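User: For my dataset I need records formatted as: sequence, then structure tokens, nothing else. Please produce one.
Assistant:
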Amino acid sequence: MWDQQIEESSKAFDAFCTYRDMGLGRSLRKLSKVTNYHLSTLGEHSKKYDWQSRVTAWDAYLDKISQHNQSAEIKEMKRRQITLALKAQEAAAKGLELFLVELKKNPKLIFKPEGLSKLLDSGCRLERLNRDEPEQSLEISHPQDFDRLEEEELEIMRRLIAKAKG
């Protein structure tokens, strides 16, 4: 539809292309200044070759391409962020394992696992967001699932939960 029309001269088509490429702020008056064609000549060409419909179709075409590219970029961003989120969760899990090993060696160990907690939380939140899941609270609802933990470990969890709640 925006291609050269039958009987449209090369000069008229060149003027149309310039007009088309001016974008949303295009006008025949601006085109006249750029091309040095008389405004009345451009008006005749515009009417005869239906420039308005053609630029409307052109703008819609460009918008469709833009939407497609944006959608592809969003999908790639989500894939990348999910990968990072899973790595953050893995790092937090490994850090927690090391923390628990050290705690067994030295029950009086003064160690602050807040960094691990923040990394795990950030990784989980980033994954949920990119999987289009709503934000939700990560509450521990079944303490019996933690029967294998020692009393000291449970106490640390209680303190962490209390601290997180404020």
